[in-house]
Amino acid sequence: MSLRKKFENDPYFIEAVATVEQRMQEEKERKERLRKFERPTTREYLFQRRSLSDLPFIPDANSDLAIAAYIVLIPYITGILFLYFHLFHMDFERMYDLRHQHSFMLIWLIGYEVVAAIALTWIFKSIIMTLFNSRPRSESSHKRGKH
Length: 147
Fold this sequence. Notes:
The chain contains 6 helices and no strands. With 147 residues, it is mainly alpha-helical. The protein has 2 domains: 3-38; 52-136, no CATH class.
């Protein structure tokens, strides 16, 4: 006598069978989705065409105006924040005195350097991660305990 026939009327067994069948179906669907998904190779990703309209924070209609505003405002705000937190140790009075003594351009240049350093660090990190992730692994590295 099979197990299914023996517990045919048991509600716990019926629920367990339904749960197992549902999870098997979900696993089958997940594997099918993974099979359809093809990760682009590093070469395809690096050499694909890009445009400014692909960026999320640039509107299509006024892209030139938005880019000009970003070029001016992002380094200036970064420069103000850097000076306020790092150089003046959050002393607003000293920060306000700097505004009267120095120009917009000095603050903008400091912010530009900070933004450039952050961008170069991010680019360098991305290159390193891409190199380590694209390296093919040998089968011997997956086997443990075999010498």
